[in-house]
């Protein structure tokens, strides 16, 4: 069945391992998130302004053409999956998605610009909020029920492990921007309370859909992304933004502990990632990077350019830059972060073999300025 969905409205791994039709089902991923995990959903949202559909996105992935990932290569979720034996799930909005493909590879619902709140990222016009992603997941369940039956589907989803990875857009593309009413309706604490109240309802809904093992990943040092630095008066990290990330992580950790004790058979955990990412940004040379404060892909001296464009200039060596564009890490940074998270959380290999479909080579030097055709977005 093909999915052709036009969406004007508006967590990173669901690990599944159950027996279907007498055979052992391969462990797969269901990914819910934002642009850090998007593998192409926004390319199928034709009116979305949050796009990674132009060169030079994807230059170090597969054939080097844009594929919907907001980086030059792989996402952190790609790399964690590759290193633990998990297949890479296709975008939910991909026209080639079928029930069989869902059972074989899972689904990725992540959407650039999406957030915990429906209003987040509104100026992108189209994006999938967490509420919408959960709604699409509910639709996926109905498709699987039609395919393998209610009883086996319930077992399939109750044996799943879920990871939710959103929240940064709720600050960067909502609360910290005066064009959004949330920026003046709330103060720092009341906004975080609002986020936690909303997130709690969403996690309870996932529990109602059968989620029993769930991890929510926390936020990194948002104040240190190139966009936040260039918007500051000093070019340094914006500490207010970083403090918001820390406060969010503290509140989310408490929420997960609370839900884990209240919900039936729930094992809800919080994945603290702030310290790992912060160390890479604070000590880039320690990890082999030369630059941790500006994007590899930039539009000369015009900053912030917000997105990487065909006319942009690339840094000389992409493997030496922590950030690919104003918002997102490079493939090399994602690889380092993913490996550190695997060690920190003790992720183990879940499948006997592993054959990632399009692993990115190590980024090297800037290409000659040849513009590749862009896919429809």
From TrEMBL:
Single annotated GO MF: hydrolase activity, acting on ester bonds
Top-rank taxon, per record: Eukaryota
Region (Disordered): 354-377
A biological process term (GO) from this entry: lipid catabolic process
Compositional bias of kind Pro residues: 358-377
Keyword terms: Hydrolase, Lipid degradation, Lipid metabolism, Signal
Family annotation (InterPro entries): GDSL, GDSL_Est/Lipase, SGNH_hydro_sf, SGNH_plant_lipase-like
Any Pfam family matching the protein: Lipase_GDSL
SUPFAM superfamilies: SGNH hydrolase (SSF52266)
Signal peptide: 1-25
Family from the record: Belongs to the 'GDSL' lipolytic enzyme family.
Protein name per UniProt: GDSL esterase/lipase At1g74460
Source organism per UniProt: Populus euphratica (Euphrates poplar)
Encoding gene per record: LOC105112887
